[in-house]
Amino acid sequence: MVIKVFLASSSGSTAIKKKQQDVVGFLEALKIDYAQLDIASNEDNRKWMRENVPGEKKPTNGIPLPPQIFNEEMYCGDYDTFFEAKEDNSVYEFLGLTPPPGSKEAQQGENTQKLHNGSVTEEHLDDDTTKKEIVEAEQNGDVHPAELEDDDPGKTVETDAQDENAEEEEPAEEDEESRKVAEEEVQEEEEEDRVEDNHLVSEAEDELVSEEEEELRELEEEEEQASEED
User: Fold this and answer.
1) What pTM, to 2 d.p., does this model score?
2) What confidence category does residue 14 fall into, taking pLDDT thresholds of 50, 70 and 90?
3) Fewer Cβ atoms within 10 Å of its own Cβ: the N or the C terminal residue of the chain?
4) How far is Cα 11 from Cα 51, in angstroms, rounded to an integer?
Protein backbone atom coordinates (compact mmCIF):
# COMPACT_ATOMS: atom_id res chain seq x y z
CA MET A 1 0.00 0.00 0.00
CA VAL A 2 1.30 3.42 -0.99
CA ILE A 3 0.36 6.62 0.79
CA LYS A 4 -0.41 9.35 -1.73
CA VAL A 5 -0.04 13.00 -0.78
CA PHE A 6 -1.57 15.44 -3.26
CA LEU A 7 0.12 18.85 -3.02
CA ALA A 8 0.76 21.97 -5.08
CA SER A 9 4.46 22.60 -5.68
CA SER A 10 3.90 26.14 -6.95
CA SER A 11 1.21 27.30 -4.55
CA GLY A 12 1.28 30.99 -3.75
CA SER A 13 -0.35 30.40 -0.33
CA THR A 14 2.10 30.36 2.58
CA ALA A 15 -0.43 28.49 4.73
CA ILE A 16 -0.83 25.71 2.16
CA LYS A 17 2.96 25.36 1.76
CA LYS A 18 3.39 25.07 5.53
CA LYS A 19 0.70 22.40 5.79
CA GLN A 20 2.23 20.39 2.96
CA GLN A 21 5.67 20.55 4.56
CA ASP A 22 4.20 19.47 7.91
CA VAL A 23 2.58 16.37 6.41
CA VAL A 24 5.61 15.37 4.32
CA GLY A 25 8.08 16.00 7.14
CA PHE A 26 6.05 13.93 9.61
CA LEU A 27 5.77 10.98 7.20
CA GLU A 28 9.51 11.08 6.59
CA ALA A 29 10.17 11.20 10.34
CA LEU A 30 8.07 8.05 10.78
CA LYS A 31 9.80 6.47 7.76
CA ILE A 32 6.47 5.84 6.06
CA ASP A 33 6.69 5.32 2.32
CA TYR A 34 4.66 7.85 0.41
CA ALA A 35 4.36 9.44 -3.04
CA GLN A 36 3.98 13.13 -3.76
CA LEU A 37 1.50 13.92 -6.53
CA ASP A 38 1.70 17.50 -7.82
CA ILE A 39 -1.65 18.99 -8.86
CA ALA A 40 -0.08 22.25 -10.07
CA SER A 41 1.87 20.73 -12.94
CA ASN A 42 -0.29 17.66 -13.64
CA GLU A 43 -3.91 18.10 -14.68
CA ASP A 44 -4.66 14.39 -14.24
CA ASN A 45 -3.54 14.51 -10.61
CA ARG A 46 -5.71 17.56 -9.95
CA LYS A 47 -8.77 15.94 -11.60
CA TRP A 48 -8.31 12.62 -9.78
CA MET A 49 -7.92 14.32 -6.38
CA ARG A 50 -11.04 16.47 -6.86
CA GLU A 51 -13.12 13.49 -8.00
CA ASN A 52 -12.08 11.18 -5.17
CA VAL A 53 -12.37 13.50 -2.18
CA PRO A 54 -15.80 12.65 -0.59
CA GLY A 55 -18.47 15.29 -1.08
CA GLU A 56 -18.93 15.89 2.67
CA LYS A 57 -15.20 16.65 2.95
CA LYS A 58 -15.21 19.28 0.23
CA PRO A 59 -15.54 23.00 1.03
CA THR A 60 -18.64 24.95 0.03
CA ASN A 61 -17.13 25.87 -3.34
CA GLY A 62 -16.59 22.16 -4.09
CA ILE A 63 -12.84 22.49 -4.70
CA PRO A 64 -10.66 20.68 -2.10
CA LEU A 65 -7.32 22.30 -1.30
CA PRO A 66 -4.01 20.46 -0.85
CA PRO A 67 -2.69 18.64 0.97
CA GLN A 68 -5.11 15.68 0.53
CA ILE A 69 -4.00 12.23 1.71
CA PHE A 70 -4.96 8.81 0.28
CA ASN A 71 -3.99 5.21 0.94
CA GLU A 72 -4.06 3.90 -2.63
CA GLU A 73 -7.71 4.57 -3.61
CA MET A 74 -8.94 5.01 0.00
CA TYR A 75 -9.39 8.57 1.20
CA CYS A 76 -7.66 9.26 4.54
CA GLY A 77 -8.31 12.96 5.07
CA ASP A 78 -7.06 16.52 4.70
CA TYR A 79 -4.55 18.44 6.80
CA ASP A 80 -6.98 19.12 9.67
CA THR A 81 -7.83 15.44 10.19
CA PHE A 82 -4.15 14.53 9.80
CA PHE A 83 -3.23 17.06 12.47
CA GLU A 84 -5.86 15.65 14.87
CA ALA A 85 -4.53 12.12 14.32
CA LYS A 86 -0.99 13.33 14.99
CA GLU A 87 -2.09 14.94 18.26
CA ASP A 88 -3.86 11.72 19.32
CA ASN A 89 -0.91 9.48 18.37
CA SER A 90 -3.13 7.68 15.86
CA VAL A 91 -1.49 8.56 12.53
CA TYR A 92 -1.09 4.91 11.50
CA GLU A 93 -4.78 4.30 12.10
CA PHE A 94 -5.55 7.50 10.15
CA LEU A 95 -3.46 6.23 7.23
CA GLY A 96 -4.94 2.71 7.39
CA LEU A 97 -1.59 1.19 8.35
CA THR A 98 -0.56 -1.21 11.11
CA PRO A 99 1.61 0.59 13.70
CA PRO A 100 5.13 -0.89 13.97
CA PRO A 101 6.12 -2.64 17.21
CA GLY A 102 7.49 -0.25 19.79
CA SER A 103 5.72 2.83 18.42
CA LYS A 104 3.54 4.94 20.73
CA GLU A 105 0.43 3.96 18.83
CA ALA A 106 1.26 0.25 19.15
CA GLN A 107 1.89 0.64 22.88
CA GLN A 108 -1.44 2.41 23.31
CA GLY A 109 -3.19 -0.45 21.55
CA GLU A 110 -1.44 -3.00 23.76
CA ASN A 111 -2.36 -1.11 26.91
CA THR A 112 -5.98 -0.87 25.82
CA GLN A 113 -6.06 -4.61 25.13
CA LYS A 114 -4.48 -5.36 28.52
CA LEU A 115 -7.04 -3.21 30.30
CA HIS A 116 -9.85 -4.99 28.50
CA ASN A 117 -8.44 -8.43 29.26
CA GLY A 118 -7.79 -7.41 32.86
CA SER A 119 -11.41 -6.36 33.34
CA VAL A 120 -12.68 -9.63 31.86
CA THR A 121 -10.27 -11.69 34.00
CA GLU A 122 -11.32 -9.80 37.13
CA GLU A 123 -14.99 -10.52 36.42
CA HIS A 124 -14.23 -14.22 36.02
CA LEU A 125 -12.23 -14.21 39.23
CA ASP A 126 -15.11 -12.59 41.09
CA ASP A 127 -17.54 -15.22 39.77
CA ASP A 128 -15.19 -18.08 40.64
CA THR A 129 -14.54 -16.67 44.10
CA THR A 130 -18.26 -16.34 44.80
CA LYS A 131 -18.94 -19.90 43.67
CA LYS A 132 -16.05 -21.19 45.79
CA GLU A 133 -17.32 -19.36 48.87
CA ILE A 134 -20.82 -20.80 48.40
CA VAL A 135 -19.48 -24.34 48.03
CA GLU A 136 -17.34 -23.98 51.18
CA ALA A 137 -20.26 -22.51 53.12
CA GLU A 138 -22.50 -25.40 52.03
CA GLN A 139 -19.91 -27.90 53.17
CA ASN A 140 -19.67 -26.18 56.55
CA GLY A 141 -23.45 -25.98 56.83
CA ASP A 142 -23.44 -22.20 57.02
CA VAL A 143 -25.68 -21.65 54.00
CA HIS A 144 -29.32 -22.66 53.97
CA PRO A 145 -31.25 -23.43 50.82
CA ALA A 146 -33.46 -20.42 51.48
CA GLU A 147 -30.40 -18.16 51.42
CA LEU A 148 -29.32 -19.61 48.08
CA GLU A 149 -32.77 -19.07 46.69
CA ASP A 150 -32.59 -15.44 47.76
CA ASP A 151 -29.42 -15.09 45.69
CA ASP A 152 -31.24 -16.34 42.61
CA PRO A 153 -31.72 -13.33 40.29
CA GLY A 154 -34.62 -15.07 38.57
CA LYS A 155 -36.49 -15.48 41.84
CA THR A 156 -35.80 -11.88 42.78
CA VAL A 157 -37.32 -10.72 39.52
CA GLU A 158 -40.31 -13.00 40.06
CA THR A 159 -40.82 -11.67 43.60
CA ASP A 160 -40.63 -8.09 42.36
CA ALA A 161 -43.19 -8.87 39.69
CA GLN A 162 -45.53 -10.43 42.28
CA ASP A 163 -45.21 -7.35 44.50
CA GLU A 164 -46.04 -5.12 41.56
CA ASN A 165 -49.09 -7.26 40.70
CA ALA A 166 -50.24 -7.09 44.33
CA GLU A 167 -49.93 -3.31 44.30
CA GLU A 168 -51.93 -3.17 41.09
CA GLU A 169 -54.66 -5.45 42.53
CA GLU A 170 -55.15 -3.30 45.66
CA PRO A 171 -56.36 -0.20 43.74
CA ALA A 172 -58.57 -2.51 41.65
CA GLU A 173 -60.24 -3.88 44.82
CA GLU A 174 -60.73 -0.36 46.15
CA ASP A 175 -62.37 0.67 42.86
CA GLU A 176 -64.70 -2.35 43.07
CA GLU A 177 -65.78 -1.44 46.61
CA SER A 178 -66.39 2.18 45.61
CA ARG A 179 -68.51 1.01 42.70
CA LYS A 180 -70.62 -1.22 44.95
CA VAL A 181 -71.18 1.59 47.44
CA ALA A 182 -72.25 3.93 44.64
CA GLU A 183 -74.68 1.32 43.27
CA GLU A 184 -76.21 0.82 46.71
CA GLU A 185 -76.70 4.57 47.13
CA VAL A 186 -78.40 4.77 43.73
CA GLN A 187 -80.69 1.86 44.63
CA GLU A 188 -81.64 3.53 47.93
CA GLU A 189 -82.44 6.78 46.14
CA GLU A 190 -84.59 4.94 43.57
CA GLU A 191 -86.43 3.11 46.35
CA GLU A 192 -87.13 6.40 48.14
CA ASP A 193 -88.44 7.91 44.90
CA ARG A 194 -90.74 4.93 44.36
CA VAL A 195 -92.14 5.20 47.89
CA GLU A 196 -92.74 8.92 47.45
CA ASP A 197 -94.46 8.36 44.10
CA ASN A 198 -96.71 5.70 45.58
CA HIS A 199 -97.62 8.04 48.41
CA LEU A 200 -98.55 10.81 45.98
CA VAL A 201 -100.64 8.39 43.91
CA SER A 202 -102.46 7.22 47.03
CA GLU A 203 -103.23 10.81 48.04
CA ALA A 204 -104.51 11.59 44.55
CA GLU A 205 -106.74 8.53 44.57
CA ASP A 206 -108.10 9.41 48.02
CA GLU A 207 -108.93 12.92 46.85
CA LEU A 208 -110.67 11.56 43.75
CA VAL A 209 -112.73 9.16 45.84
CA SER A 210 -113.67 11.97 48.23
CA GLU A 211 -114.82 14.17 45.35
CA GLU A 212 -116.96 11.35 43.91
CA GLU A 213 -118.52 10.67 47.30
CA GLU A 214 -119.28 14.39 47.72
CA GLU A 215 -120.98 14.52 44.31
CA LEU A 216 -123.03 11.42 45.08
CA ARG A 217 -124.08 12.90 48.41
CA GLU A 218 -125.15 16.15 46.76
CA LEU A 219 -127.18 14.25 44.16
CA GLU A 220 -128.92 12.24 46.83
CA GLU A 221 -129.83 15.42 48.71
CA GLU A 222 -131.25 16.99 45.56
CA GLU A 223 -133.34 13.90 44.85
CA GLU A 224 -134.70 13.90 48.39
CA GLN A 225 -135.69 17.56 48.14
CA ALA A 226 -137.42 16.92 44.83
CA SER A 227 -139.34 14.02 46.35
CA GLU A 228 -140.53 16.12 49.30
CA GLU A 229 -141.81 18.88 47.01
CA ASP A 230 -143.81 16.37 45.06
Assistant:
1) 0.49
2) very high
3) C
4) 20
